[in-house]
Write a structure and sequence with these properties.
single chain, 237 residues, alpha/beta, Rossmann fold, seven-stranded parallel β-sheet, 49% helix, binds NADP nicotinamide-adenine-dinucleotide phosphate
Length: 237
């Protein structure tokens, strides 16, 4: 039986992907800060789901909790980093920027390193990073969010190179979703994708061991435009 741990799986993409993996016969370790939701998951999917409370900003915890889950599940083939926060901050207030960096950069790095080191030690495994389409270019609405997602994407690229030197059986996947219908997305946005469609495409990308995918696929065009649009147009949007 294949085994996965999803960091940030009490709601949204992480929770939906965890449930999808369970229906596909995987064992899944769920994590997040909301203990009540974790309790519900462990009761509902008793035997197949394992849960551990984890705040990724608590620097002592990510490596320890990932180790605890791996021991409980007696191994792990896949670790998905879906924990993340984003704050609209056109007013350029410092606190939300620092809070975003804390989770999406500092917490992310603890988790990604723990996962990479574990897979290097066992000689195989799959690390999946849920970054964002926002990684492609800095935007005015949420400066820290886009910058932290670019960090995650580049970090995944670096870990892909590090792990390739160690074993060809380790894969690092960068998933870049556009807008997905979760608690994180507020207000009117365009091309909002259902959580089911996004989850199915992420699951396919995992099975194919892709390096980088846009979710849904048509967001690759937006990514291209974001990267290539001249500043005089980008600054007007
Ligand atoms: N929805 C979108 O349109 C979209 C688009 C592109 C990328 N993404 C990315 O997809 C990922 C998942 O987001 P989502 O849309 O599914 O949002 P969500 O429903 O808000 O899920 C975020 C998850 O992160 C966890 N989390 C937040 N802070 C944490 C912390 N300090 N320690 C541990 N876990 C923490 C939350 O769990 P607890 O609150 O229980 O800790 C929750 O499980 C994020 O990285 C986000 O940036 C989302």
């Amino acid at each position: 039986m294949k085994k996965a741990i999803i960091i940030g799986s009490t709601s949204g993409i992480g929770l939906a992907l965890g449930c999808k993996l369970l229906t596909e016969g995987w064992q899944v370790g769920f994590t997040g800060r909301r203990a009540g939701i974790l309790e519900e998951i462990s009761v509902r999917y008793s035997g197949a789901a394992f849960t551990e409370k984890l705040d990724v900003t608590n620097s002592d915890m990510p490596e320890k909790i990932i180790g605890t889950l791996i021991d409980k599940m007696e191994g792990c083939d896949l670790i998905v980093v879906s924990s993340g926060v984003g704050h609209i901050n056109s007013e350029l207030v410092i606190a939300p920027e620092l809070a975003t960096i804390d989770v999406n950069v500092v917490g992310f790095t603890h988790v990604a390193l723990a996962a990479a080191k574990y897979f290097i030690s066992q000689g195989h495994g799959h690390l999946v990073v849920i970054s964002s389409i926002a990684a492609n270019r800095g935007d005015s609405g949420a400066p820290a969010y886009g910058a932290t997602k670019a960090y995650q994407s580049t970090y995944a690229q670096a870990l892909r190179k590090v792990t390739a030197k160690s074993s060809p059986s380790i894969t690092v996947t960068d998933i870049q979703p556009g807008f997905v219908d979760t608690e994180m997305v507020q207000g009117d946005v365009f091309w909002l994708q259902s959580i089911d469609k996004a989850t199915n495409q992420i699951f396919m990308a995992i099975n194919r061991r892709c390096r980088k995918v846009y979710i849904t696929r048509r967001w690759r065009f937006i990514a291209w435009f974001m990267r290539h649009m001249p500043d005089f147009i980008w600054h007007k949007l």
